[in-house]
Input
Amino acid sequence: MTEKKNDSLKNVSDVVISTRIRFARNLRDYPFPCRLSNDKKVKVAAIVKDAVLEDHSAISDRFRYIQMSELTQEEAVSLVERHLVSPEFISDRQGRGLLLLDDESVSIMINEEDHIRIQVLKPDMELDAAYDLADKIDTLLDEQLNFAFNDKLGYLTQCPTNIGTGMRASLMMHLPALQESGSMGRIASSLSKLGLVIRGMYGEGTEPGGSIYQLSNQVTLGISEQEAINNLRDIANQLITQERAARAAIIKNISIIDRVYRSYAILHYAKLLSGDECMRLLSNLRLGVESGLFEDVDLETINSLFVEIQPATLMKNIGKKLAPQERDQIRAELVRSALLQKKIPANRRLQ
Output
């Protein structure tokens, strides 16, 4: 991994699943959430809620407010599975609220580690579009809420690692070939020297289920938001190039080809699928689609299934608690139905 600048690659949906921009912000007149009583957290939540819902901007009427303490465990965990909130946010839901845009592309966590976490999600590698929207929302809220800011340090945050821009930009990437080659440890070590980190699909401390990794910036102080985004894009382009080269090599291996086709068959005919097995099989299928082996499945379907098969999301959508075997049966039915109904050539998504 080098710091050489690359021009932005095009058509990267074969590797990049989604983009996230997140801003950490705090209200100047209130202590950080770790020092707030539950009553004060409720007050902060009300202030932020009113600032968004009563803003009368073009986007304000598209938000709905969710009182986190009123959710079931399955509903709360499903928010994590859908990448709308962090695992930390649902660990203690008292005094916490969530503002969610109708299409779920924007979520605003209130009283997580910081008073406000503005998060924008976009498909594929849409760093500039995600940043522009997050910046617009950030500006609207700052005008009403007066964020904690220091001329030398930038935005003040509870954790020192977020001081400065308070921004984390990240890409969700499918890296099965690099994982197969055993390169991820070396890559992670190289990335840390360049101010980036690569983690599992739900962030710090999580595993890369389905060969899905989250690449994000680590440095927030002494660097502009645009510099951080450009650095992330440059390194992501290098990873994309490396992943594609590794795929071209391993897809010639008959054992890999056999694994991909077996995964395709199991996903179409299995009556029971555990979560871990399903993630692994979908990852293999996605590799086959990316490599041109299949034309009856598109990447968007697989990307959606990565989320929809998660246990809490399954139960939320069904509307009741399910025993493990019941989840496995419904998961298999869901995958089978999605793959049989979706008949979009793979190369249409890659053009």
Notes: The beta strands are 16-25, 63-67, 97-101, 106-110, 116-123, 149-150, 154-155, 167-174, 196-199, 212-217. Residues 196 and 217 are 4 Å apart (CA to CA).
